[in-house]
């Protein structure tokens, strides 16, 4: 199969962790016999006078680069921050249409594989119509659980899904949302994410804690993710405050960066937890195993998630999780032997943390479960679905 992957969710030299889950899925598909994968990952360009810093920084990304084992092309497209959301997909297509036409003339692709239904999937569908190529779209979360609420965007999402030969949700609720928006159930499937076993393997706890300067006798909780409201770290901190009354040696590390940092730091000070709650900042993906291995429990308290990679990553390091039972989370934590599912409220999270710290976990079983869901398994499922839809 000759696959053209079209997505803005892909690692690049500026941000090597951006969309790493898409990279993993596609590089492992390319490693299977008889498959080739070409990636087109558009980069937004905003006029200098109105360009936020995050867009200015992307200008140094080369037009062509190799990411791991894949060739990646980065066409530019116009973006007007705060103004162009309804035109986002059109601008993305306009910025890459000539490149896509030339690529198809050279490589004769069999299918376009698009990630994120809007704007990426919409732009890919316009390209598919232009080139006479079938398109498969993958939903990742916000693209089908939030964007359809916007009246100017919803019709474009519905058109994309009605015209796709296949749709992939990383969890069942996302697949069902795609069907509700117009994708035929016969063309829909669920393919969850996998785990990179080269990056995520257990480290001896004492070694991990020494490396991170964590007290060896602490009861350690770790949350990994962007510091944004939907990740629910404000709930986790309040729940942790309640926990410390019963577990005085408990400490909490929230590993990540984002717009909510100041708010969370203020909350920590207000609750007088500055000696127990720490925000060490963003950590490279390949270094996260030290945090998971150092922890007694890993925490995910989001209000919505697709297939959160942090869950399998934690399990692969032998660490159980406490997670809110939203969207795809119960599909990852499919047994109480893997972790504790809770409702997204402070009392429920506090109670779940207490239960998890008191439980006796079979860490070898956690690792074995995670290792059953490798990216090679994911690639095999993807290949089978693409072949079925192309018949």
Whole-angstrom Rg? 21 Å
The CATH superfamily title of the largest domain: Glycogen Phosphorylase B
Number of continuous helical runs: 16
Counting structural domains, the number is 2
Per CATH, the class of the largest domain reads Alpha Beta
The unreliable regions are none
| Morphology call | globular
Proportion of beta-strand residues: 15-25%
Q: Which class do the helix and strand fractions yield?
A: alpha/beta
Describe this structure in words.
With 391 residues, the chain is an alpha/beta fold. It has two domains: 210 residues, Rossmann fold; 167 residues, Rossmann fold (3-Layer(aba) Sandwich). The protein is built from 16 helices and 16 strands. Strand 15, helix 13 and strand 16 form a beta-alpha-beta unit. Helix 4 packs across helix 6. The termini are close together.
